[in-house]
Specification:
With about 250 residues, the protein is of the alpha/beta class. It has one domain: P-loop containing nucleotide triphosphate hydrolases (Rossmann fold, 3-Layer(aba) Sandwich). The protein is about 40% helix and about 15% strand. Strand 2, helix 4 and strand 3 form a beta-alpha-beta unit. Helix 3 crosses helix 10. The longest helix is centred in the first third of the chain and has 30 residues.
Length: about 250
Amino acid sequence: MCDVCGCGDPAKVTIDVHRSLLEDNDHEAAHLRDHFARHGVTVLNLMGSPGSGKTALLEATAAALPGRRLAAVSGDLATDLDAERLRRAGIVSRSITTGSACHLDAKMVHRALHLPDLAAAVDRADFFFIENVGNLVCPAIYDLGQQANVVVLSVTEGVDKPLKYPVMFERADLVVLSKIDLLPYLGDISLSTLRENVARIRPNLPLIATSARTSEGIQDWLAWLAQQHATSPTGSTVPSAHAHHTH
């Protein structure tokens, strides 16, 4: 029995299974990345806890960039509420309902891109935001074909989150500290301590402090987006011989 099921050596079996799952996901993500590159779309994976302010950040982004073409998918266990908010803000958006899954994977994103309205919008978009499921653990592991990872961290979550969930911050390209308008009401929360704890996990990781309510820091966020867009692949990536079309 142990030789068959692997219980005699659980560490080895766990690693093999995990590697296989990630290899399948990475293969799918590579196809997505090629597709996005061919269309010149800047793709960002937006991660953070439930209630950290991911949707609010995108709403503020849409309000500040009325001339930009924006598209998004919102990962949610059970509802379409976040996608509805983004549509009201002017972002072409669809929900990916995951049920019990605590993250998005590349196949979920791929399936969403088969939806006609979203597919057309993404191919024409300047930015495609993948608003991941609210979670500070699982989403960090899965490649979705994105250009960069953004972690949204609310000041209301406390200063210890980077230390408690280091993998999320190790894999981030930017931390957006949200809800800083609430700092005067959070006497035990120190912005400098938050910055220090992020730096302890990953030195020199960029951090932008923002408030979607007051628009503080939003221009810095937009400047970072512009930099990402300027360095996006422009379609020079050549798909592999086994690549299939995303749509």
